[in-house]
Amino acid sequence: KRLSEEEIWKIPRFASYTPGEPSKVLYLKNLSPQVTAKELVSVFARFQQKHEPMIQFRVLTGRMRGQAFITFPSVDVACEARLFANGYNLLGKPLVIEFGRNKSGSSDPQS
User: Fold this and answer.
1) Which residues pair with 88 in a beta bridge?
2) What is the strand order of the sheet 25-29 is part of?
3) Which of 23, 50, 78, 102 is the most buried (most CB within 10 A)?
4) Per-residue pLDDT reduced to its tens digit, 7-31
5) Could you tell me if 70 and 40 are in contact, meaning their C-beta atoms sit under 8 angstroms apart?
6) Beta strands in the chain (DSSP E)
């Protein structure tokens, strides 16, 4: 079962959920403690394209447990992946996915 964005907003800690500005990086929250990169690969590998850089998976540990970052080769692919997987029930918890914020030093000359 997959939750819609409206259903995600009904979860008190995600009441102010917003996907953010599109970027190549997805920030996943609300992960089950049992989730590893292997489970994320099983969900997101369908977005890997031949002749494109490999999708990068980073599952956070320690205090940041329950969160992960996935970097895609393009913003378009990241947008598709977010629409596909946001709200997806993975190991008993719905994925809550936002776009990662761009790091300073990006292509914006003001940064």
Assistant:
1) 2
2) 56-59, 68-71, 25-29, 96-99
3) 78
4) 988 888 888 888 999 999 999 999 9
5) yes
6) 25-29, 56-59, 68-71, 89-90, 93-94, 96-99
